[in-house]
Each structure stands twice: as C-alpha cells, then as structure tokens.
Amino acid sequence: MPATPSPNQNHLLAALPTAEFELLAPHLELVALPLGEMLYEPDRQLQHAYFPTTAIISLLHVMESGASAESAGVGNEGVVGVSLFMGGETTTSSAVVQTAGHAYRLDRRWLMQEFNRAELLQRLLLRYTQALMTQMSQTAACNRHHSVEQQLCRWLLLTQDRVAQRELVITQELIAGMLGVRREGVTEAAGNLQRAGCISYRRGHISVLDRAGLETRSCECYALVKKELTRLLSDAPCRHKATTAAR
Amino acid sequence: MPATPSPNQNHLLAALPTAEFELLAPHLELVALPLGEMLYEPDRQLQHAYFPTTAIISLLHVMESGASAESAGVGNEGVVGVSLFMGGETTTSSAVVQTAGHAYRLDRRWLMQEFNRAELLQRLLLRYTQALMTQMSQTAACNRHHSVEQQLCRWLLLTQDRVAQRELVITQELIAGMLGVRREGVTEAAGNLQRAGCISYRRGHISVLDRAGLETRSCECYALVKKELTRLLSDAPCRHKATTAAR
DNA sequence: GTGCGTATGTGCGCTGCCGCACATACAAGC
DNA sequence: GCTTGTATGTGCGGCAGCGCACATACGCAC
User: Fold this and answer.
1) Strand B94-99 and strand B38-40: pairing?
2) In this structure, is the CB of residue A146 within 7 Å of any atom belonging to strand D?
3) Of A43, A97, A118, A162, which one is least surrounded by beta carbons within 10 A?
4) Quick check: B138 contacting A, CB < 8 Å?
5) How far apart are the first and last CA of chain B?
6) What HEC string does chain B produce?
7) Distance from CA of A1 to the nearest CA of B (A)
8) Does B85 touch chain A (CB under 8 A)?
C-alpha cells in the first residue's frame, strides 16, 4: 500500500496518455470515502465522477421489499458515475461505499465537456463501461444459477483484486446485502470455506489464504468478468503499469 | 402493423434528426431474422449493428452447465451490438432472435466511424446503452428476489411493448430459457395468469388480455425499466412519433 | 381424417435458501 | 477487569423451484 495517495493507483487514470492526463490532473480532487457513504441514489443528480484508488463502491439495487442486491462493484479498476458521460445523468441504482478508502473525483460538468473533446479519454471510459456491463449481465445470470457459496467465492476474489491485500475488512452481514442473500447463508458458506482452508476470518475481517481454492469453488463468472475487464483495458495506452494487473 | 417495412419503426432511427438520418439511410440494410438465429456469440467478431423493427432479440448468457438466462431484450426501442461503438467489439453474451421479424443493419466499420463523427447519433446511442444497462442491472436484482410469476409478468409486458400486438408467438419452453427457470415453472405461472384472466394461451401463442392485471402481478422491475427507457430516450430529438410510446 | 412431433399439464421427492429465534463470543470503551 | 453492542453460530419449519417421469392434447403435414 503506497502511503502517498496518487491518481495512478486508479487504473483508468493511469492508462491515460500523459498529454490527456495533464489536462485532467488539475481538476482531480482527492476525497476520503467512509464506509456506508452513498455517492448517489436513484433520481439524485450526480455531481462528480469518482475514480477509486483504495475505496470500493457497490452499485446496489434496493427493491420495494427492502431487499437489496449488487449488480456490480467498482474499485481502482474503474469509475463510479458512468451515467454522466453516457448522458442519463442519473441511474436507478445506488452507489454505496463498501470498503472505506480514497478516490479522486472530477466535476460533472468538466467531465462531460472533456468526454466530448478528448478522444482517448472517451474511448477509455466507454471501454470500461462495457466491462461494467459485462459484470452486470453476468451477475444477472449468476444470481439465477449459482449457489451462495460459489457467489461468495466470486465476490471475495473480485474484491481482493481491488484491494491487493490478503485481508478484507467487512462483515458477513454486509456481504449478504451485496449478494442479496441471508446473512446466515453467508455465515454457512464462509464456514465451509474456512474449514476447507481457503479463507480465515474473525469478526469483521476475512483473509484469503488460498486463491486457487477459491477459484475452484467459484463459479465461472469470476474468471469471465476478470478476463473481459483485462481484455477491454489492457490494450489501452498506458503511462504506468497499474493496468497490467490481470487477476 | 405497417405492411411496408420502414426504418422509422425503430425508435432510435426514428429519433435521429433528418440531416443525420439522411447520411445513415443509404447504409441501412433490411434483413429478415428467423427465430433462433444467433446474431453473435461470445468472442465472435460482430459485423453489423441491428436496429430491430418487428424482430426481438435476447441477450443471453449460457453458463458452463448449459443453463441460460437473459440479461436484457432488445426490440424496436433499441439496437443490438452496442459493443461496436463501446469499443470492445465482442461481448461475453450471445444475441439470439427470440421473435422472428425484421431489422435494419449497419456495417460495423461504417457505424464505428460515424459514431465518432456524428455527435447526435453518438449521444442517442449512448443514452440507449444506459437504458440497456438499467435493464441488465435490474434483471440481476430481479433474478435474486422475485418469483417466477412476477418475472413472467415483467417479461410479457416488456415483450408486448415491443410487438404492439395482443398476441405473442412463443412457446413456454423458450420463455423458460429466457428467464432461466424450468419450463414447468413457466407452465404453472402461466396457468395462474390465465385463470386470473390476465392472459390466454394455446400451443405457442400467448395473448395479453389484461395489461393492468399483469402490471399488478409483476414486480416493480417492469415499471422501473420502462420508465428509465422513456426518460432516456424521450427528450431526444425526434423526426417521427415512434419514440413517444411510453408503455 | 390420420398420424406424429412437440407443446403443455401434473405429480412426485428433493434441495437450497428463507425467516425466525435464539445462543455464543468477540472487541472496544469505561 | 467488566459491560455492552454487535458479529457470528446453529437449529428449526417452511416453501419455491428443481429434476424427473410421465400423461395429455394440440395442430401441422400427409
């Protein structure tokens, strides 16, 4: 973990060619995102796009019944607020900070303007958006067909990729909210994984011990989403090495 | 149903201002899409974008187990092949003709070129893509929390909006494939809906008798997706009235 | 009309997840 | 240390949907 926050910790920002980055840099504002903060909710006008460095954000759907489910997560590989440049400005989902950390944000108007002017920035953001769509649509199919344990594995792998740390700081209760299942279901699945030596956990902390084991027990969705993200962003121009991290 | 096929039957094409449409028109090619035809599949390079008029296309995910689920459907409100202008060129899903009919298609290269040149075309396509993302992410949450009957209602309503006909020509088996559930589950749900007077059906045909009834029995997802589609496309410039049809 | 392919109806037992009601045990603050 | 809030463990009945095995019945092709 770099002690000094840097925009290059975000893969999209790091992938921008120097010329474009220089234009953008003065407008980047570092913000701390505490756990549970809501970056946007349905129908509320989003004021900034957020490029996470150490924070992780969940795109959550809350149903009328109060039940919730995550359609995608965003970490240092992406950006929160694609609806700004997609033109809709609002979305039907909420964006909630799932792991506290930092992000750089850009003002809405500036981003919208620059998106239309800077061709490479536009291309990069659109390619990332397609990766996000992959994640969403795969989650739809995954929710239909795969078990809680498989989905927990997928979720742990995706999340760990974003923090680059063995230990995740999160409660099973919160994970249940993301997956849209009961907290008890997560407890049981996590128990199995711990007994199998894949993870170990204590009150609010989960450590990944055996990634290969998790990948075996995960459904195919993890590898698929990961592969697509890599494909879509790896051949982008790149100032720093941040984008190369595949899995 | 107009006897003469016209690009204006597709809401996106109809929404283009005359100047932009004139540029595009010579490149539009009318094609017949038979039931079951696969417009693209994972990793296969897409050669055309399809603007359906009477056809309906399902964006399907096929899992390793062979099970499938639709993450979104595309009818005359949209376009198949957003990955072309999003920059990825391929996707991880398949696109399968769910209801036979017609579509206008545009060559891949021409569309990619024009997307970068024509600002209004770009804006329209991106807004539609955001509506598609709404459909995908809502489907993810819906698959998690709602019953087969609720989802069948949602599916019937969305599909009927696309054909503008009382009667849909489709088997329960195919619907089951879209929803990612058992055929018997669809049979049972359809039986309930018929007994309630919402629909009537016979071998391969389903007629919607009571839209309001279906909306009541549907989950909130139908209204939400529909509303977002309307919002994103209604304030677009519009040569014809096609885009105004909100439900 | 007759026949046949295929769409639909129905009944099993089974499983995974739910909803609830607790028991337990951790960790931070006094 | 002890208390207290909260995270986790566990057991129950219930139910929706699954997988299977059929029975039935529709409608097209001949």
Assistant:
1) antiparallel
2) no
3) A43
4) yes
5) 17
6) CCCCCCHHHCHHHHHCCHHHHHHHHHHCEEEEECCCCEEECCCCCCCEEEEECCCEEEEEEECCCCCEEEEEEECCCCCECHHHHHCCCCCCCEEEEEECEEEEEEEHHHHHHHHHHCHHHHHHHHHHHHHHHHHHHHHHHHHHHCCHHHHHHHHHHHHHHHHCCCEEECCHHHHHHHHCCCHHHHHHHHHHHHHCCCEEEECCEEEECCHHHHHHHCCCHHHHHHHHHHHHHHCCCCCCHHHHCCC
7) 31
8) yes
Which residues neighbour B118 within 8 Å (Cβ) at sequence distance 6 or greater?
A: B20, B23
pLDDT tens, position by position, A58-97: 999 999 999 999 999 999 999 999 999 999 999 999 999 9
Closest residue by Cα to residue A42 from A97, A92, A96, A86: A92
Question: What pLDDT, on a 0 to 100 scale, did the predictor assign at position A229?
Answer: 97
pLDDT digits 0-9 by tens, A126-178: 999 999 999 999 999 999 999 999 999 999 999 999 998 999 999 999 999 99
Domains of chain A: 7-138+226-244 (2.60.120.10), 147-218 (1.10.10.10)
Instruction: Return the nearest residue to D6, CA–C1'.
Output: A203
From residue B143, alpha-carbon distances to A160, A184, B60, B69, B103 in Å are 25, 20, 14, 9, 29
**Of all residues in chain A, what percent carry a pLDDT higher than 70?**
94
pTM exceeds 0.90 for this model: yes
DSSP 8-state symbol, A26: G
Q: Which residues pair with A74 in a beta bridge?
A: A57
* Residue in A closest to B180 by C-alpha: A144
Residue A243 pLDDT class (50, 70, 90 cuts)? very low
> Is the separation of the CB atoms in A13 and A104 below 8 Å?
yes
pLDDT > 50? residue B71: yes
